[in-house]
Amino acid sequence: MPELPEIETIKNGITRIIDCKILEVFTSQLKLRIDSTVNLKLLKNNSILDVKRRARYLLIDLTNNNTLIIHLGMSGRLTLSSKFQQLKHDHFACRLSNNQWLIYNDPRRFGFIDLIKSDDIKNHKMLKNLGPEPLDKNFTSEYLFSKINNKLTNIKTTLMDNKIVVGVGNIYINEALFDAGISPLRSAKSITKTETAKLVKSIKKIISEAIKMGGSSISDYQNADGEFGSFQTLHKTYGRQNEKCFTCQNKIIRITQNQRSSFFCDICQK
DNA sequence: AGACGTACCTGACCGC
DNA sequence: TGCGGTCAGGTACGTC
Q1: How far is Cα of residue A14 from the mean position of the Cα atoms in its chain?
Q2: Residue-wise pLDDT tens digits, A200-217
Q3: Phi, psi for residue A154 in degrees, rounded to 5
Q4: What's the predicted TM-score (pTM) here?
């Protein structure tokens, strides 16, 4: 489901739980992608100090030096609701002192929830090797060029590598490459310094616009209040195979790269 | 070391 | 209707 703009939107939607106390915890028996290090029932009586995001991970800081890490995988949803009746695929829920339930639902179970000591967060195996945030000032064209100029792999796959830059998934990389006028088929090492600068600018632009629009709702993404994002109405390539390019009227092509769909215009993107 | 394929899961959709 | 195939927003891991 979610790339960085969707997670950022969810994060903004749940900041109202800050200062709430966790009164009750539900967990399903089903296995998520990785097992929680400790029993999540231990969350009871912790209070929420802060809600943060790193890459596509939501980090909920708690009292007792605990941090809850939530990843939504491909199909996860995190919602706030005044009631909780366990639905299929609900894997975690907690009742808060503001009379709301925070509910984690994930049909495909590619996501996970873990509870660790806040001090150990940087060492968590899912977080320790992450590259910079795309909107961070240290994600520059000099940095990116140094990371890609010896890579044989295509530029699209390269930019989806979390060690290089985080949070840029299949939707937004297609959109950013279109914006930059660069074909997804190019090898990373063939991208010039000038093109790298354009690419960095396009990634920042697309991600910021998507955050402003509340993310993209392709089939089932919803924010913490069950509302849909609207950036999908501005997609210029993603999901538009055989439709006309808005710039040149050429047909948008769909191909497969590393088992993921790429959409592009072979006239506008060189 | 780097490149690439595979695996984890469910559900929606399409063609026969 | 039902069945098999394909596809889906992510990411770690195995193998060459």
Answers
A1: 16
A2: 999 999 999 999 999 998
A3: -65, 155
A4: 0.96
Eight-state DSSP code of residue A247: T
C1' of B16 to CA of A2 (Å): 34
Chain A residues 14-33 with Cβ under 7 Å of strand B are: 31, 33
Q: Are the C-beta atoms of A257 and A184 separated by less than 8 Å?
A: yes
3-state SS, residue A251? strand
Amino acid occupying residue A83:
K
SS3 A204: helix
d(C-alpha A158, C-alpha A151), whole Å: 8
Transcribe A178-201 into DSSP letters: HHHT--TTSBGGG--HHHHHHHHH
Instruction: Burial-class residue A84 by CB neighbours within 10 Å (0-12, 13-18, 19+).
Output: middle
Over the stretch A113-146, which tens digit does the pLDDT of each residue have? 999 999 999 999 999 999 999 999 999 999 999 9
Q: How far is the CA of A204 from the C1' of B15 (A)?
A: 41
Tell me A132's DSSP state. Answer: -
Type and span of the H or E element at A159: helix A155-159
A94, two tokens: 């907690």
The protein footprint on chain B, as nucleotides within 7 A of a CB, is 2-12
- Do you know the residue count of chain A? 270
* Interior angle at CA A131, CA A130 and CA A134, nearest 5: 125
